[in-house]
Amino acid sequence: MQLKSNDGRPEEQLGEFSHEAREAWNLIPERARQALLSNVCCGNCGRVTTIVAFRATIERGSLTLIGSCKNCGSEVSRVIEQPGPTKLFTIGFVGRSAEQFFEPLRDAGVKLVVDIRLNNVSQLAGFTKRGDLPYFLQKICGIGYVHVPELAPTKEIMDSYKSGAMDWPTFEAQFTELMRERGQLGPDSVIPKLARRGPVALLCSEADALRCHRSLVAEQARRAVPGLVVVHL
Question: Mean pLDDT over residues 17-29, rounded?
């Protein structure tokens, strides 16, 4: 639903918007916009009113709507607190103790760990084995777990990279093409969908996120989800 001025123009176009405010306003569902402009108390006439002919800015991290009282024309405003950015975390477990693995996930507020290893029965860290990790995550941190091997490279690609026969740029190119073939690029792929629901962490084994395919999956999600912030734990 789009509010209209007396001459038929959409009211949200009657004032100036900063770039950041426009982005924040566009994220609000159209039906919710009308509610945000309504039921505002005017300090001049003392009546509950609707904001008209408004502009929008970001002040102290919050979206602020400033316009005129529909009843008396005095300036009225509404401050809409903005949630923090959506975050996508990644974590590896090689070289970490159980404490060093579980505490960062808990402290970050992660709600779901997405295991993107091809093989989740690795002996590199006993607490990350298939039969144990879901239990530990739930009992220690209250975190859910899902294994999505479709987001892992093929054994052939991984073996070539591990053996040194393939360099990182080639690995990145082949992995990206593999994800394209599997339909895992774009806003409707697995990770963007999960990331929109709450804090998610991508799990793989490598200690260095920037030389692990989890960083590539995270970057692909970042490109697909506006405002998504990637944090390597």
Answer: 80
**What is the SS3 assignment for 89?**
strand
Are both 103 and 159 inside the same structural domain? yes
Q: What is the DSSP letter of 217?
A: H
> Which residue do the tokens 């091997």 mark?
149
Distance CA 13, CA 45 (A): 25
CATH of residue 205's domain is 3.40.1010
Least confident of 92-106, 111-125, 217-231: 111-125
Q: Establish if 49 belongs to a structural domain.
A: yes
Question: Which residues does residue 68 pair with via DSSP β-bridges, in sequence order?
Answer: 52, 75
Q: Which residues contact 61 (CB under 8 A, 6 or more apart)?
A: 82
- Predicted confidence at residue 165, as pLDDT, reads 96
pLDDT band at residue 29 under the 50/70/90 scheme: confident
The answer to whether residue 23 is domain-embedded is yes
As for how many domains the chain has, the answer is 2
pLDDT, position 25: 82
Classified as helix, coil or strand, 229 is strand
Q: Where are the alpha helices (DSSP H) in the chain?
A: 19-26, 30-37, 98-107, 133-136, 155-163, 168-181, 190-195, 213-224
Q: Which of 88-102, 129-143, 145-159 has the largest mean confidence?
A: 145-159
Q: In this structure, is residue 4 part of a structural domain?
A: no
